[in-house]
Structures are given as C-alpha cells and as structure tokens.
Amino acid sequence: MRSSRSLFVRSSVGFLVAALSVAIIGWGFLRSSTASGASSAGHKVTIAMLAGLANPFQSDVLSGVQSIAKADNATVKYYNYNDDSLTEASDVSDIIVSKPDLVLYGVSNSSVSLANFKRLKQAGIPVVCFDVCLEPNVEKTYAHGFVTSNNQCIGNITGTLAATYIKQKLKGSATVAFITCNTESVCQTRFAAQQAALKAVKVMEVANEVEIDPSAAQSAAEDILVAHKGLDMIITDGLSETEAAAAAVSDLKDHTVVFGMDITPSIARDLLAPDGPLQAAVGQNGVKIGQLAATIGLGVLAGKNPATWQVTVPGKLYLRSDPAGVKAYLTSEGAKA
C-alpha cells in the first residue's frame, strides 16, 4: 500500500541518536601520541595520502589530515586513484621514489591493494589505513593502524529507520530495492546491519544492484523504478548510491522513498526538498577520520604504536524531520568554502 511522504513519527530516533554518540576508542591516547615537534630536528615530515575514490568524503578526510599536518609542521602530498588499479600502482611507485615518511592509504579493492602494501613495506614506509583497509587476516601485517566509520552502527541506524517507516507508514510490509557499494568491505558491513534491522518487518526484495559509478547507480535506480511500479522504498549504503537514488526518484516523479548513507550538500538539499524522496542519511565524519589517521601515523613515527589498532568513528544522523540539523550542515559547508 502506498503512503504519502509526510514525516514519520520520531519514536526510536532518540535511541538512534544516542547510538551515534559512542565515544571514539582511544581518542585520549591518540592525542597524546601526536609526534609534536617531529619536524624540529631538521627534518620536515612528509605524509602521502592515497585515496581510493574522488568524492566529498575523501575531501573531508584530506582536510582532517591537513589540519593535523599543519599543526605538526608536516607536509601532505595527495593522490587519488579513483578506483583505477593502474593509477593506484603508478601512484605507489611515485610514492616509493619520493620516499615520504608516512602513507595514509584508503583501499578501494583489498585484493588489488595488497601487492602495493607489500611494496611499501619492502620500501620501509609505514602505512596507516583510513576508511577501508586490507582483509582482516593480513591487514595488521602491512598497516600500523586503521581508522574508519563505525559501519555496523551506521548501517543499523539506516535499517532501523527504514523499518520504523515501514511499520508506521506501510503497515509493516514493503517492497524494497537496494542499491549498494558492496564491492567494498565497509559497505558489506553496513548492508549486513541494514538487513538485520529490517527483519523486524516484512520486506519483499525486488532488486539488489551494486554500482559504484554515480551515473551507473542512477541508471540502475531508474531501471528499477520503471521495472517495479509502485515500489515502496530504495535503501542505499553509500554516497553515490544515495545521490543517484534520490535523483532518479525525483526525475521520474515517482513516489518511492529513499533511506541513504553519507552526507554531501547535494544529499542535504535532497533532505530539504519539499516532498522529496530522501527521508534520512547517516553522514560519515571524514574530517575526524583524517585527523585520527594522521595522528596515529605521526605517533608511529615517534615510536608510539596505537593502543587500539582499529579506531571507529561514529557518524551523524540527518533527517527530513529535522531540517534545522540539515541546514546547520549546509551552513558549516559554506563556512569551509
């Protein structure tokens, strides 16, 4: 049964927001581990940051890294291979030749990246992962630490909000399509948490597409909407997928609602659009992830390995039913620009 897009009741939002306030593990230790003065002995520390995708989240991570580097009088050289394995390998070759003190590495494909991590280790350049790392059985062999979002938590938030909407607006039953970034391990974690939360309601899954490229994700969303008239909901677990799903529904003037992931000015505007499809998104704190990754790395250079190898950072919930919070995000983005 179809439903209007009127704002669903905020019951359960309280505990969801509380879940997002989980403290960052080891933050006090990490701050004390910053290699302050690392450049004071006549050597200016150089950090190479290697990002796997070109998107606003990665830009936020870079901002976080730069803020820590500036405070420590270090320099940052930024590489973005944008999910291209040949560019990734070439960038690593350039890094090895230029011999930075530290590499902050965001993995796109763990199998592909493993060979590059081995090359960096052989070259004696320490690595700290951010966002995505290698497979769990090898990552600690090649990286000194890992900073990422609490992906299980943010997946649970999205899934629980979607389930609440289905209970309150769709009488406990819905047809649902998924558009995901599940080639990446972090997205798989989010997706698993979404699936677990949705067990509280009756869901008929009509499509499940994996698309990383923004244009491909929007095409997939449009195809799903055309093939499944009367679809109740699309759920996503990544940035490009959320923007694409919201755009497809709006372009086709469909009535399907969207529950998504990540926050960008585009996603924020979708949340504020009158009668828009996007109901909620959980934003990752890229700046904090960058700050922590740089802090861990500088600590490693000072001989201080982190007490906790993997540090997770909570996200922030943005709701159509809380336009003030969404507008505050847009204001902060304008201030950064």
Distinctive features:
337 residues, alpha/beta, Rossmann fold, 2 domains, six-stranded parallel beta sheet, six-stranded mixed beta sheet
Describe this structure in words.
The structure is a single chain. With 337 residues, the protein is α/β, with parallel strands linked by helices. It has two domains: 13-21 and 151-284 and 318-336, Response regulator (Rossmann fold, 3-Layer(aba) Sandwich), CATH 3.40.50.2300; 27-148 and 286-313, Response regulator (Rossmann fold, 3-Layer(aba) Sandwich), CATH 3.40.50.2300. Helix content is 47%, strand content 19%. It has helices at 13-20, 27-32, 56-71, 85-98, 110-122, 139-142, 151-169, 185-197, 214-227, 239-251, 265-272, 286-301, 323-336, and strands at residues 46-51, 75-80, 102-105, 127-130, 146-149, 173-180, 202-210, 233-236, 257-261, 278-283, 310-313, 316-319. Helix 9 (214-227) crosses helix 10 (239-251). Mean pLDDT is 89; it is low at 9-15 and 17-37.
